[in-house]
């Protein structure tokens, strides 16, 4: 299976790509290599091959979701760039 330069130009137009002549020939060569590789895959006998649903048979192991304070409020306020009493000062985001 091979692709000609006109097909490549049509694909480039649809993908909004622009190539100079050197890159165009390079892309044509690469595209034909990819299509040949896919054609080789298409010729493989996959009758007795089960479909792959997951890459790995391992299951997700979830930890218990437990809230915990890792930084004390006073320490966080001490490191804040702006604060007001016991609160953080932040720029207004709504008008």
CATH topology of one domain: Histone, subunit A
Enumerate the strands of the largest sheet in spatial order, edge to edge or round the barrel.
Answer: 1-2
Number of strands: 2
Distance between the termini: 61 Å
**How much helix is in the residues?**
40-55%
The unreliable regions are none
- What is the CATH class designation of one domain? Mainly Alpha
Proper CATH architecture of one domain: Orthogonal Bundle
Proportion of residues in β-strands: under 5%
Give a quick account of the main beta sheet: strands, pairing sense, barrel closure. 2 strands, antiparallel
Number of helices: 3
- SSE succession: HHHEE
Report the radius of gyration as a whole number of Å: 29 Å
Average pLDDT works out at 88
Q: Decide which structural class fits the backbone.
A: mainly alpha
Shape: elongated
EC number: 6.3.5.-
Catalytic activity: L-aspartyl-tRNA(Asn) + L-glutamine + ATP + H2O = L-asparaginyl-tRNA(Asn) + L-glutamate + ADP + phosphate + 2 H(+); L-glutamyl-tRNA(Gln) + L-glutamine + ATP + H2O = L-glutaminyl-tRNA(Gln) + L-glutamate + ADP + phosphate + H(+)
InterPro entries: Asp/Glu-ADT_sf_sub_c (IPR036113), GatC (IPR003837)
Family: Belongs to the GatC family.
Textual characterization of the structure:
- With about 100 residues, the protein is mainly α.
- The protein has a domain of about 35 residues: Orthogonal Bundle (Histone, subunit A), CATH 1.10.20.
- Helices cover about 40% and strands about 5% of the residues.
- It contains 3 helices and 2 strands.
- The protein has a two-stranded antiparallel ribbon with strand order 1-2.
- A hairpin with a 2-residue loop joins strand 1 and strand 2.
- The longest helix is centred in the N-terminal third of the chain and has 22 residues.
- The model has no long low-confidence stretch (mean pLDDT about 90).
